[in-house]
Amino acid sequence: MICDLLRPFLILVLLLAKCRAADEPARELHLLCWTEYVPAAVIEGFARKAGVKVMTANYNSNEQMLAMLKARPAYYDLVQPSQAYVTALIEGHGLEAIDRGRLTHWGNLDPKYLGLPHDPEAKYSVPWLAGTVGIAVDTAQVKEPIKTWADVFSGKYAGRIVVVDDAREMVAWALASLGLPITDVSDGALARTEPVLKQWLPQVGVFDSDSPHTAMLDGKAVIGILWSGEAALLWRKDHRFHYVLPAEGAHMFLDSLAVPAGAPHKDLAEDFIDYILEPEVSVLISKEYPYTNPNRAARERLSAEELANPASYPPGDRVLAPLRNVGNGFAEVAAFVRRVRGSNQ
Question: Where do the domains of the chain lie, and which CATH numbers do they carry?
Answer without folding.
Answer: 17-130+254-307 (3.40.190.10), 131-252+319-343 (3.40.190.10)
